[in-house]
Structure formats: structure tokens, C-alpha cells
């Protein structure tokens, strides 16, 4: 397999330049309101490349809102968001920051992949085509290159033998694994995971989490994860950020947050979910 068709860089030692530990995501004084509801209140946080960061917090604390801002599905009322050095919310023109245009957003968005609660596969396309579609049409890969990449990734998620199936012929867990392969096929610098197992039957959860654990432990991709699966968060996270009322109230490595939380709200939250 040529270097370019390797599904992901699986060696920490030969990590791509994007995973050199430098700052990959920066939220600077980001405020997001829905009507009179201020969900994020002048929020600052950063994620360094190669890190796996999990957002925890009570329902409604704004975790999904952060991922949706990164996907540019919604816009902040105030503040700036940067991904790999580029503003997502703005662009620089003649030395001035102006609201980002569609073209700029599309370019920066290529750095970001997301797996949603609902798998959102194209029902009329076979598994392989679900994974090759965006690399061909968005990245401009040749069909052969895209297929080689897709087959490698479908092997990685344990579905190399289901390339010719339609999504409806797969279990929910398998569909979610295709969705993971599809997101990775764009070679994003950061993978956003939003409650990726919450729509699954309980017996299918472990298979999906195992695939993600494997990706977290064997690749250099940056992950920003929202999950209620605390054991999974403990296993894969370098850092855990606890949200409350639109702020990060506590952060640190999982062994500290889960074993010795400092904040009363973190203790309350963990005692309810653990
Ligand atoms: N499109 C929207 N319109 C109005 N309010 C919204 C919208 N999206 C989110 N909200 C509100 O913003 C708040 C934060 O929602 P968000 O989904 O980010 O929380 P969360 O921490 O991810 O919660 P959960 O753990 O339940 O998924 C909630 O009060 C929610 O009702």
C-alpha cells in the first residue's frame, strides 16, 4: 500500500505534522445564545493536536453545541473559533477580521470530521460508495484512490467484507462503524464524536466503542468527544473537560477528574452517572 493510500497514520513516531502537539482548536470568548438562553458564556478552551478530549456535563450544559459550532451548523453570537490556525468563524481580509464567507468555511471544515448519534448514511448507496463519495467529490480523489482508502478504513472498522451491502442490511452498530470510516476517509485533523452510541441497542454499543478505542490508541488523530459512556471516556481521554452553565468548571486527566474531582458540580454529576 502506498503512503498516500494508508488509511490513517498509525504510527505515533511518524506522526503527521498536524499531530505535533500544537494547538489545533481554540475557542476564544465564545458566546452562543438560543433566544434568551445563553448556552455558552464567553467560553475559552483549547485542544492540542493528537489529544483525545472528552466533554462531560449535565444534559443541556452545551456539549453538543460546541461540536455543532465546530461543524459550522450554527454560529456564535460572540467570540472566535480557530481550527489549525485558521479562523472558522471569520477570515482575514486586508489585515482585518471579517465574518467568514462560504468558501473559507468549506476549506476550514475539511479539517473536521464528525460522527453523529444518527448515522446518516446514504440509504441508496452501498457501504463502499458511502465512504468514497465525499473523498471523490469534495477532495477530488480519483475513484481508485478513494476506493483503496475506503477499503482500508472499512477493514479498520471490521467491515471489509460488507462493502457491497446497503446500509439497511447492516445492524445499527455496523452502520455507525461505516459512519466512522466515512468520517475518517476525509482525513480530518480532528474527529468529533457526538454520543455515537446513544441511538444503538445496548448489545451493539461495545463493538462501536471498541473500534473507537482502537482508533484512539493506534492513530494520531485528534478527538473531541461527547459521551455518557464514562468508562470509554476514561479509557481514551487525555483530558476531560467538565461543563456547567456555559463554562469549563474543571479539567484534567481522566484519572484525576473521575477519582478526585475538585468541584462540587463535578462530584454531583459523576455520582449520578457512574
Ligand atoms: N437549535 C436550538 N434551538 C434552541 N435551543 C437549543 C438549540 N440547540 C440547543 N439548544 C439548547 O441549548 C442547550 C444546550 O444544548 P446541548 O445539546 O448543547 O446540550 P448537551 O450538553 O449536549 O446536552 P445532552 O447531554 O442532553 O446532549 C439546551 O438548553 C438546549 O435546549
Automatic annotation (TrEMBL):
Location in the cell: Cell membrane
Gene3D superfamilies according to UniProt: P-loop containing nucleotide triphosphate hydrolases (3.40.50.300)
Major location (coarse): membrane
Region named Disordered: 1-20
ABC transporter domain location: 25-270
Membrane topology, from the record: Peripheral membrane protein
GO molecular function, one term: ATP binding
Composition bias type Polar residues, residue spans: 1-14
Keywords: Amino-acid transport, ATP-binding, Cell membrane, Membrane, Nucleotide-binding, Transport
Family under the similarity heading: Belongs to the ABC transporter superfamily.
Listed name of the protein: L-cystine ABC transporter ATP-binding protein YecC
Organism (species): Streptomyces camponoticapitis
